[in-house]
Amino acid sequence: MQLRYIDEFRDPATARALVERIRNDAGDAPVRLMEVCGTHTVAIARIGIRPLLSGAVTMVSGPGCPVCVTPDGYIDAAIALGRGKEAMLASFGDMLRVPGKSSSLEKEKGKGLDVRVVYSPLDAVELAAASPDREVVFLGVGFETTAPAIAGAIRTAAVRGVANFSVLPSVRTIPEAMGVLASDPEVRIEGFLCPAHVSVIIGADAYRPVAEAHRIPCVVAGFEPLDILMGISMLLRQIRKGVARVENEYSRVATASGNRKAQELVREVFVPCDTGWRGIGVIPGSGLRIAERYAAFDAEEKFGVPVVFSPEKTACRCGDVLKGKILPDECPLFGKGCVPEEPYGPCMVSSEGTCAAYYRYGTP
Amino acid sequence: MCLGVPARVLEKSGAAAVVELGGVRREISLMLLDDVSVGEWVIIHAGFAIERLSEEEAEQTLSLLREIADATEIH
Questions:
Q1: Rounded to 10 degrees, what is the CA torsion of A170, A175, A180, A185?
Q2: Check: CATH 3.40.30.10 for B5-71?
Q3: Alpha carbon of B21: minimum distance to chain A alpha carbons (Å)
């Protein structure tokens, strides 16, 4: 079956017209825009948007790769659950190679740790239901896009009475991080290209506080080439007009208010908390922890294995990359001690990490 | 990690549906959407339909893009 509304948003002639429109709107100095989301980072690198717009627009990559901003203490806690508590760990594939303080899930799996890769958090509930004599811990890593799926799995386990299922949560929210970046004088960005699927859940209006407080234009854009180019063009027009609004290019899926049913489920299962972002630090109110009512499904509570956040002392400059302060090749380890096959920092691990995208598709 | 894939709902039973993803039929959850009908296009993320795909909105965006393409002179 043909996929709907994919090819239409890849038309080369329209892409050329959009590049021309962006170049016509550009001023003498390149405009600095940040793509917040890792899926955008990969698409921009793969399509080759940076060289197409060089001199007119500088695209800076943001912290929107959930795997990259998950602290190493989280990996250590997951390994401790698998080793000490003999739990079966269920994870999205991206997490396996992320380095903790001393090891990764993949290395431990090679030594016998029981780690299963799942496509959906619901698959982890099924694993638990099928193995009643084992504890199954789902590694619940993600942003707002994934939070409802994790919440849905917890509620499903509660309704079905799957008591040997729990979640080690590592859920973060994007607008709070954008606020921190917008107020950082070293980051110096003039507009945000906002994530497509985070916005589907939280709604485009969720960026209004950031846009208004920091006078910074925000445009929600889809992940196809025309979506990204149109989003950039809309940002540029706002900057030229001197306005700072929230606009939505991805209106075929994302709405102003978002998916209310998903938001209600997230509010039922999670409560906001302060949380640490790897390489960035603690951002107030930027995390979601499991609510009291579902504490039986919170692996940290259930097994008394806390996730400890301690900033790392390392030559790896992922933190500055995640904040858009430097480009990956400005890090002394990039391409030397740190390559996708043997990653040193988290930005090189995930396929959506900024360093991995630059390494794979070349630096502009 | 926030990838979402468009898919058409082929079958539905309660809060579960069958969709085709990359040539493979897969069961997904409709827990996050009310009143989805067979034949509708939805966006799938991590085993859940997270939103409908509005054909009307898609056509509006495409017609705006076509206007830009027609109006822009390529040098």
A1: 140
A2: no
A3: 9
